[in-house]
Design brief:
Layout: H1 5-21, E1 26-27, H2 30-51, H3 61-81, E2 86-87, H4 89-98
Parallel strand pairs: 1-2
Helix pairs in contact: 1-2, 1-3, 3-4
């Protein structure tokens, strides 16, 4: 589900949008690949857990993109605070650490 080119492009759009909203002129494309890799690595374990839930409680790709939006928003805030003009991989990584395990499927 998360290994598709479409999902990566959606992650890129999320990061670009968050960067623009905070006045940043660029974003590091590797950040989208990083998030996609995390989601893909966690996919089997997390989706097994989702299968045990009631149908209406199960999370999927739209939930992952909502989590990515939260991460990107926080990462863009960090970038502005650090006076960057680019939303960097390091900003995304710092946001992930700050919100650890509150952003499914980017943690286990």
């Amino acid at each position: 589900m998360f290994e598709t080119e479409e999902f990566k492009e959606e992650l890129e759009r999320v990061l670009i949008s968050a960067a623009r909203r905070r006045g940043l002129s660029h974003y590091a494309p590797y950040a989208a690949l990083f998030l996609q890799r995390l989601a893909t690595q966690n996919e089997t374990i997390l989706l097994e857990a989702e299968e045990r839930k009631a149908v209406w409680q199960r999370r999927g790709q739209s939930d992952a993109l909502n989590s990515a939006r939260e991460l990107a928003k926080f990462a863009a805030t960090l970038a502005v605070r650090e006076r960057h003009d680019t939303l960097t991989f390091e900003d995304v990584r710092a946001a992930l650490e700050a919100k650890y395990c509150q952003v499914w499927p980017f943690c286990r």
